[in-house]
């Protein structure tokens, strides 16, 4: 388990092994997500290749809300797997 100490300004330095595992570099943003009373850090560093296909193309059929939910859940699962694998 890693730990960090908060300064009087509310800042913390993540240990190097945690930064390395999350693939964080200086200037990267981190989302802090609360789920069931547990806070999780998620790197927000998005690569250009991950943005491909995010914009709607006129010839594409719109997704149903259910399809959007399924796609979102799949993307979250992929992100969590990538983070666990250290990529």
Automatic annotation (TrEMBL):
One of its GO terms (molecular function) is DNA binding. Keywords: DNA-binding. Residues 1-11 have a biased composition (Polar residues). It holds the Pfam family MazE_antitoxin. The keyword DNA-binding applies. SUPFAM superfamilies: AbrB/MazE/MraZ-like. Residues 1-46 form the SpoVT-AbrB domain. SMART domains: SpoVT_AbrB (SM00966). Residues 1-21 are annotated as: Disordered. This is AbrB/MazE/SpoVT family DNA-binding domain-containing protein. It comes from Candidatus Devosia phytovorans.
